[in-house]
Amino acid sequence: MKTLRTVVVGLGRIGWKTHIPRTHEHTGFELAAVVDPLQERLDEAKSDYDVAGYKDLAECLEAERPDLVTIASPTLFHTDQAILAFERGCDVFTDKPMAGSLEEADRMIDGMKRTGRKLMVYQPRRADADIVALETILNRDLLGPIYMIKATRSNYARRHDWQAFLKNGGGMLNNYGAHVIDQGLYLTGEKAAHISCTLRTIAALGDADDVVKAVFETESGIIVDVDINMATAHKMPPWHILGKYGSAVLESGIWNVKFYDPGALDDVAIQDALAAPGRSYSSGEVIPWQETTVSVSDYEPVNYYDRCHEYFAQDKAPYVPIDQSRELMRVLEECRKDAAR
Length: 341
Fold this sequence. Notes:
Strand order of the largest sheet: 8-9-10-7-11-12-13-14
CATH superfamily of the largest domain: Dihydrodipicolinate Reductase, domain 2
Number of domains: 2
Number of helices: 10
Low-confidence stretches: none
Order of helices and strands: EHEHEHEHEHEHEHHEEEEEEEHH
Largest sheet: 8 strands, mixed
Radius of gyration: 23 Å
CATH architecture of the largest domain: 2-Layer Sandwich
Structural class: alpha/beta
Distance between the termini: 52 Å
CATH class of the largest domain: Alpha Beta
Helix content: 25-40%
């Protein structure tokens, strides 16, 4: 197995809690060095992982000559750091969101193409066990043609850190939206159209959005309805998948699926006259509903770092193709534009 010498940039929450340990633990990666402006974090990395630390990415790349640069820094630094890595002969694995704007994302893609390097974005929520379980439900075609996906993330949080401020690329559209909208695009396998969005700042202590309402249709007409609300005292079900013949709701780690077999329905005579027979509001039809449950705990999430190694070291197809990452960035950009109207 080829080992990828890897530099991790940014020792904040996602870098320290996710990318550093997973890089260190995976046999296909070697944690060659870390980059962060804070000396205490570099000292911590040296103590815990015996790894070289740098405050300057350019200096690190010159000294270490890595195969891969994992960017876990704040969003506003992603583009310049990625392009620098490309120009120094490195592939790039960057945290989400890919960049602060579509224009910045396109600069990254141009840099990738110009230098002949590889680029993939960390979109871990599409790899979660709840999505793996949902895919098995959809593959069984229990619900019939899907016409709507409702995704909700809810909590009450008085956000006070850097992600509470627009100047830092913060806000829930960039933060959770980059996950949830990506999941919707991934599940439908289509591009978005007719995008509408409302952004509000309610409980957060900065100026960035903590309430997001985004709705878009896919090319085939599937409605994706996204609610991200960090200012609600009541939690809401994270997923509601609606099909022609039934629906599935995720609650407490269980997919509750209710559906019927269209072949089991009795014929119903259509009545289009203005005088309803017997002044009745319905045909009296009884839908032969069936119910089943699927436990998320029965499924394993996709090992993202296995997929990374397959792409960066084994030349297999990327788990998250860059055109899908660009489409996500386009949708986020259109959401911001619509919310500003």
